[in-house]
C-alpha cells in the first residue's frame, strides 16, 4: 500500500515569466493564484473555473487538477509539487 506521505502537497516550485523560481507553501500558492485569477477577465477563464463560485475555490481547483495557468500571450505561470528535505 502506498505511503500517504507520497500524496501530500505542502510545497511547490513556481515558475513565472522573467522571474527566478520560487518555493511556496500551499497557502502562499493559493494566494498567488487568487491574485492572478483576479487579473483575468472572467470570460477568459476555462469553463471549469467559471463554474466555481469563488476565487478560493477556483485557485484550489487549479492546485488540485493542474500545474499551469494561462496568464497571457508569451507569459507563463507553472507550479509543481516538491518535497523539501530538512
TrEMBL record:
**InterPro entries cross-referenced by the UniProt entry:** CRR7, CRR7-like_sf
- Pfam families, from UniProt? CRR7
Q: Read off the PANTHER family from this record.
A: PROTEIN CHLORORESPIRATORY REDUCTION 7, CHLOROPLASTIC (PTHR36803)
What's the name of the protein? Chlororespiratory reduction protein 7
